[in-house]
Write a structure and sequence with these properties.
With 475 residues, the chain is an alpha+beta fold. Helices cover 40% and strands 16% of the residues.
Length: 475
Amino acid sequence: MSTSAPGPRVTGLETEFGVLCAPAGPSGATKDDLPDVERAAALIFRHRPVGYRSTNLFLPNGARLYLDIGAHPEYATAECVSVRDLVAQDQAGREILAAMAERAAAGLAQMGTSARFHLLANNTDSAGHTYGCHESYSVPRSLLDAPDDATRASSETTMAVLTSFLATRPVLVGSGRPLAGGPTEPNDGSSGEGEEAAWGLSPRAPHLQALTSADTTGQRALVNTRDEPHADATRLRRLHVTCADTTMAEPTTGLRSAVTLLLLDALEAGWDFTDLILADPLVTLSALGESPWGDVPATTVQGRSLSAVDIQEAFLERLTSYLDDAGAPDFLRGAEHLLTDLAPRVISALRHHDDSAIDTEIDWAIKRRLMRAQRERHPQLSGQSLETLRSRVDLAYHDLNAETGLVPRLVAQGAMVNLCDPEEIERARQTPPATRAALRGAFVAACLEVGADFSVSWESLRLDSPPTAPVDLPD
């Protein structure tokens, strides 16, 4: 194996948001006065940043904001080369959307309708639909593509390692979910005991049906294989991961990207993970949707009977060895503790069925702590009332609305810690990372300043007034 550090790779996050419009205040609007989901999303985008004429926006910070199929606002970060930049960009997008929703509510109030818009950074709605958080990683084309029979086995093995890793990754970075039909008897004490049986690790897991697929909606997969590199196709391929839970805690988001980036570096350097390939990753992943501690079967192709926690711990141990040999990569600068400190604590919490050491940093643990606290406040609840309480806690946790969402209060109380400083996130709202996004963002900002018509994609820029030839940005 090689310990030479691979070159910089860019990464990005795309997050789809659920939308809900609800009455606000004691004399709030009636249901008939409120916009439905499609109109609510359209109203939010009516209050997009100044200077845009459509609902497909490339922003001065290099990111893309648009209205996706199904009335889902979606924010795709600019291309980032560090974990901290990625988390800051992701949080900046949420703040931009939340501000748009606040302006939309103010607009309704001026017309006499007292309502509140909720943007939900979650994964499922009450009708059972799922929407996701997608990750993109640039990789050498040789890592995933097989130009001939001699290299096909290597590419297939790489994908088998990746899907086995992704299928067990929710034990580290799942966002947690309340289970319908969980324990619904009144709490018999003040400790919140028994709530573990009502919560699983991943809301996205039960909706994933394939390891890989070129289809983004018909067959939801761990990895989307459509060949769309958004870069120089002769050199680069995009690893498009479509199985992530949408997370609220910055350390969880950072850990998810950090451990995946490090695995890609190790694979590119030739490190061997073939003994961790699972015989049926989807079976293991599906079980994590209802497992509170991740101790579900994960049988390897070599016949070893392990658990999902065992698999992730083995990946982490090997990646720690890779770090020791190759040194900390630049993308981990300022975030090394996510791998060296936080990840081992998550494994320990899972082993000991005690999440108290991670319940300000990891989504599934934070949310479970909140539920225990609610059970202590309402020990008399049972049946449907208790299920409703769990659902309300879940929704409030993922709500971007500053008045009703739980995250701002948790941060203010020290019950949730951040990775990035507020200044980093504010800077990310305006300033692109030091990738080709910097050129894109400067171009967009200049066009908006003078009112010029322009067309932008991930890999090209074009001035439309007067018409010019596009400038390609393949790297």
